[in-house]
Design goal:
The chain is α+β, with helices and mostly antiparallel strands and 199 residues long. The chain has one domain. It is built from 4 helices and 8 strands. It has a 4-stranded antiparallel sheet. A 4-stranded antiparallel sheet has the order 5-6-7-8. Strand 2 and strand 3 (88-97) form a beta hairpin. Helix 1 (7-17) packs across helix 2 (45-57) and helix 3 runs antiparallel to helix 4 (178-198). The longest helix is centred in the last third of the chain and has 21 residues, at 178-198. The protein is elongated and about 55 Å long.
Length: 199
Amino acid sequence: MKKIVPILTVALFALSTACCGWSKGNDSTTSANDSIANDTAVDSLAIALSRLDSIQSKGQLVHFDTWKIGNLKGVEIQAQKFSSENDSIVFITLRKDCGGEYYYSWEDAFIFQKELPSLYEAINTIKSNLDRETDHNEKYVYSTKDNVMVYAENPGKGWNLKLSVDAHKSNSYINLTTAELDKLVELLQQANRKLDEIK
């Protein structure tokens, strides 16, 4: 996504056009200003994104709160709260400093709290296989709904770890060590705790 328009427009567009999935939970209702990201009545990213699209289409004033959690090799991990008069949602943002790589200066993607368990599980699976030898090309790939990707590949000569904030761009990957992958998990856990505070 090209960052050449105001940040509010970009964020709203990203949130309203991302891929949708997962199943719907129970049909209980929520009160105004509840965070919809982890409410039992909203067990679907699709519904959350639909609500955000509805907020945007009504021309309401939208408020962003951002807390910087930490930095990993030029990737800023942030906790964010997106709220309007009647709705709010919290999520984690990964923002990559492109350093002049593109004609815009940064790219970002978001992670919902409900995506974290499967992300952690994928990272643990990847780590458990890093000492395993292979005589062929082998890959592990995990991607969130907004294309944050953790990637491990062994072409038969050892494993390489990578992280991408925007998996649509082939040159958006950064190389990680195992220790840096652990640091990513630590920062995500810190961000998750912050989201619990601000919901």
